[in-house]
Design a protein that fits this description.
alpha/beta; two-stranded parallel sheet; 45% helix; 302 residues; binds fe (ii) ion; globular; 12 helices; Phenylalanine Hydroxylase; 4-stranded mixed β-sheet
């Protein structure tokens, strides 16, 4: 995710209980600051592929147009991009039937996310707004942690639209449409999860640097790598799990310690990005996660 902040997203007069964010409440998307990641790193699977880089530039122009007009531009994905999606989405679908939270599986269907074509942010955004008032905003680069999380306080998720390079369909060094649409977006249809995400956003706007680091850990062990109890079983709802074959299978293997969620433990748990996660946390329900997080964020600044 994420360098300099959407400063306008840090105004103090925005109430924690404001679940209905109107268009007028939103900061200007045109002020959004992000790192340009179109200059692909030398290690990136697409770094030496001129066609891929041209596609990234075209898709970045769609996000740029959003910042100017506020309207999401549909991306005209080409046949190769659709093939990457189909391969990854089908593989994940199979694993998810075994491991994903039933809420998530239903939500994916409700949002019309299919394995045979890349979904458009415009359509998912329209459905989300109806269901929980959450919105999606296209972005082509990385936004620093505070800035990225702060947008959640407006019930806005910044989303990429490009897709990973075809040479390594199981891997992406940065979030792509697979990670966003298969990992993150379905969970925002859950009212408790949507409110919980908004609390994280509120927290990010008022957190000290130390609190921000703790919030980052909470985000990591829930939004990215969260597990949830379901009828005596454990299921995945975290985007980092749901959008990666390797992570999803690993999460349910005996190499992972699955601990009951405890806020204090989670916010102090240092993790590493690069390795598979050896410890994961299981929440009892999305409603409880929301309430624990509300109390935690309300303690900021006191
Ligand atoms: Fe993510």
């Amino acid at each position: 995710m994420l360098t300099d902040t959407a400063t306008s997203a840090a105004e103090a007069d925005f109430e924690i209980g404001n679940y209905r964010v109107s268009d007028e409440d939103l900061p200007e998307f045109r002020d959004l600051k992000f790192e340009n990641i179109n200059e692909l790193h030398i290690d990136h699977p697409g770094a030496n592929d001129a066609d891929y880089r041209a596609r990234r530039d075209y898709i970045a122009s769609c996000a740029k147009s959003f910042r100017e007009t506020g309207e999401i531009t549909d991306v005209e994905y080409n046949a190769r991009e659709q093939r990457v999606w189909r391969y990854v989405a089908e593989e994940l679908e199979e694993l998810q039937q075994r491991y994903a939270s039933p809420f998530y599986l239903r939500a994916k269907k409700d949002l019309g996310i299919r394995t045979d074509q890349i979904p458009q942010l415009s359509e998912m955004n329209r459905r989300l707004k109806e269901l929980t008032g959450f919105r999606l905003a296209p972005i082509e680069g990385l936004v620093e942690t505070r800035g990225f999380l702060s947008w959640l306080s407006y019930r806005v998720m910044l989303c990429t639209q490009y897709i990973r390079h075809h040479s390594q369909p199981a891997y992406t060094p940065e979030p792509d449409i697979v990670h966003e649409a298969i990992g993150h977006i379905p969970m925002f249809t859950n009212p408790n999860f949507a409110d919980f995400s908004q609390f994280i956003g509120h927290g990010a706007r008022i957190a000290t640097d130390e609190q921000l680091e703790q919030l980052g850990r909470l985000y990591w062990f829930t939004v990215e790598f969260g597990l949830v109890e379901h009828e005596g079983d454990i299921k995945a709802y975290g985007a980092g799990l749901l959008s990666s074959f390797g992570e999803l299978e690993h999460a349910f293997s005996d190499k992972v310690e699955r601990r009951p969620f405890d806020l204090e433990t989670v916010i102090n748990h240092e993790y590493t990005y690069s390795d598979m996660q050896p410890v994961l946390y299981v929440i009892p329900s999305y409603a409880e996660l929301k309430e624990v997080t509300r109390k935690y964020i309300e303690s900021f600044g006191k």
